[in-house]
Amino acid sequence: MIRKTWYNARVKRLSKILCVILPFVAAVVLFTACSPRGRTAFITPNCFNTVSFVAAYASENELNAAAEEIGAEFAKIDNAIGLSLNSDIAKFNDNDYDGAPLEISEITYNLLNEAKRLYEYTNGAYNPAVGRLVDLWGFSPRLNSGEDASPALPYDRDAKDDKGQPVQTVPDEKYVTAFKSLTDFGEVETSENGGRYYVTKPSSGATVDGVTYYMEIDLGGIAKGYAADVAAYILESRGITQSYVSVGSSSLSLLESKNDGWAVSLRHPRDNSASYATVYAENTAVSTSGDYERYFVQGDKRYCHIIDASTGNPINNGMTTVSVFGRSAAEDDALSTALCVMGKDAAIDFINANLTDCRVSFVWQNDSTGSFEFITNMESGYELADFELHSSAKDGKITYVA
Description:
Blueprint: H1 5-13, H2 24-32, E1 38-43, E2 52-57, H3 60-81, H4 88-93, E3 102-104, H5 106-121, H6 131-136, H7 173-180, E4 189-193, E5 196-200, E6 205-208, E7 211-214, H8 220-237, E8 243-247, E9 251-254, E10 262-268, E11 271-281, E12 284-290, E13 295-298, E14 301-304, E15 307-308, E16 313-314, E17 319-325, H9 329-342, H10 344-354, E18 359-365, E19 372-376, E20 382-384, E21 388-389, E22 391-394, E23 397-400
Parallel strand pairs: 19-21
Antiparallel strand pairs: 1-2, 2-8, 3-5, 4-5, 6-7, 8-9, 9-12, 10-11, 11-20, 12-17, 13-14, 15-16, 17-18, 18-19, 22-23
């Protein structure tokens, strides 16, 4: 039902200046306090390995019907591009895939094309072809389901803590080097013929200890944003315009608010019970990425789930959290990841050159001082509760202030 028109429709609307990260509990509390007519409905089934909900000023029947339709669309997206056994992406990732064009759904086709555009736009900083590296470093659903990893692969580690519980550890460098060679997302080809859609996987592989591995992709860096955009389209088509949707706590579509915008909080990257800023926003989209959702510590070093394809390693550049507001939630989703990968200086340059129509904020940990610095191209419209402001902004451009 949801076709490519969702994207153009949302781009025209998503141009307001403020966006936020919306922690789940705070979102419910702040919204339901606005009015006795405000309601929240969970979106089921749970897709994208997260909890999603929609909040609106609408009747219970209207909201529940919208949530049911949204849930059905979410299931279609997850079944198409998730890493479940029978999804298009799981079939693409299958090591036995022979390199011939693989027929895929229109959803997968559209998302792959958008991902390819954003891969090029960010000069590879956003790169879905890090799927094999994400698995190598222990952050894939295969290794985080709560059950034994299936199937077991030669590079899996069997480390345990002093209580006998499995722990994540740094992989062998030979695998990092090999899998880094499988990250040219530009080699992935999509095509359409007579209303049928196809993707062709690169045939080149990397061999380690006699086992050959091929490219794997992971669209998790764009899927939740796409879902938030689809949900907003459904809400608007039903006339439920005073509403918002949260897909996890990382991608949101905020429609009209009843008052002066939705009151939301930016999560502290090192304390999930605290926030460091409050922002009011409406009629916009937002996505955020950070190094705090999935990570492990070995020795005195932190390893997070955001992988830099150029090194094959988790980012280690001080970027702790990035929020991008505007355009579509799908694009924001990819851009927030890309800016994390770029690092402070390159991120500022990219924002100043390409994102002056958006509102972007990030927190960078200064390695020399250990302090957290808040950097943004927003000139106003936010209340900073923690961290020091280390930037000035004018016309959507950032000047870093040491």
